[in-house]
Amino acid sequence: xxxxxxxxxxxxxxxxxxxxxxxxxxxxxxxxxxxxxxxxxxxxxxxxxxxxxxxxxxxxxxxxxxxxxxxxxxxxxxxxxxxxxxxxxxxxxxxxxxxxxxxxxxxxxxxxxxxxxxxxxxxxxxxxxxxxxxxxxxxxxxxxxxxxxxxxxxxxxxxxxxxxxxxxxxxxxxxxxxxxxxxxxxxxxxxxxxxxxxxxxxxxxxxxxxxxxxxxxxxxxxxxxxxxxxxxx
Amino acid sequence: xxxxxxxxxxxxxxxxxxxxxxxxxxxxxxxxxxxxxxxxxxxxxxxxxxxxxxxxxxxxxxxxxxxxxxxxxxxxxxxxxxxxxxxxxxxxxxxxxxxxxxxxxxxxxxxxxxxxxxxxxxxxxxxxxxxxxxxxxxxxxxxxxxxxxxxxxxxxxxxxxxxxxxxxxxxxxxxxxxxxxxxxxxxxxxxxxxxxxxxxxxxxxxxxxxxxxxxxxxxxxxxxxxxxxxxxx
DNA sequence: AAGTGGTCTAGACCACAAA
DNA sequence: TTGTGGTCTAGACCACTTT
Lengths: 233, 233
What we know:
2 copies of one chain form a homodimer. Helices cover 28% and strands 36% of the residues of chain A. Chain A has helices spanning 5-19, 31-37, 42-55, 83-89, 108-114, 161-168, 185-191; strands at 58-61, 65-68, 73-76, 94-105, 121-131, 134-143, 173-182, 198-208, 211-221, 225-232. Chain B binds a DNA duplex through residues 4-6, 30-32, 40-44, 46-47, 49-50, 60-66, 117-118.
């Protein structure tokens, strides 16, 4: 069961890009060069690069060449995507920093968004997700202890909160509200950007069994995150 | 400038699916049948169907066939909202400033996003939407003249480009890509914010008859615009 | 056994970009 | 002019599903 040649080429280029040997803006080998070095026909090399372009990893200009695109995660708003998967599929090395992990009584906006009375105790984590050591997303999450009592005992460096929670039970419903915000001092520090930097912030709620299971704010530097919604009418 | 054969096949199948002549679960013609009826090689038919599968419009099973996928998005929750409606329903008084209105040859990102050759002439408008006299959204829109030849003659102060265009024909498909950007000098001036201000920017494309009908960038100050996506899984 | 998708090949022609 | 990507062709072999 060996890998299809066009996939071998895609993976090879992905590694080059992930490792930084091919940096954004760099030209990648032409189709003819790839065909020769991988001992395949040009059509096979073409398909490999074409599919990388469809993924957004490279962009191509006829007559000029194919170039490594700015690395930018693209997530669909119609799914509840897993950050670790997204980073890996973009060719990055995932890591995480756990900033806070505690029990926290709901109040104000959190209580009202969670639809629980003020003072209700929720599980809380604050995590910085990193791609190749660079902060890429700040996740501020609240979880209903009735839904996932062992939530705080998880090893978040290995499994994202989202992956753990969806493994417990698939949500029936999700809501995502998107806005652009200027980085405040905490966000600036944790994401390693300057204060006032344009960030994309998603407030996400998911429902299980008719009740809100988790509430999370996901914040990322604007230039490193894009959200995509494509639908038929 | 005729259309590439594999795109002709894709569009033909899209129409069949959009019209309901091919319903979810139906088998579409095999690659060999498509190759014969469109007078192309099997590789060309293969590419057409493969790309439709990548879009999620069909799914394929080796040995069995290709089938129309369930189109099960919660449409009521996803729409292409009209800015005038939004402002009025929020209790604001709508007005608009027409900054530019012209014919413009497509090039670079616009040509590639519109999937037309460079130099193709598009209709272009640049409009600032205002609520109670305050700039609230900048709309930079390109329209295919074949789709809406009279587009430039509209009175945009009374009817939004979006409302006019959807009145001509309902799009079958829409794509919206969201990002956070810092205001550049033009955006800052037109939206009356400072340079670097965090803005939400949506790139929206809509399809009619298998072709891209319009492409628009919608930019708004982050604190005045939120996007909401709620869906069932 | 016949048909399907999945993939590869070794050529080809074109429009376009850079030198 | 040379090289690039964009595309098409007419064959081919394979693993798989259906009959």
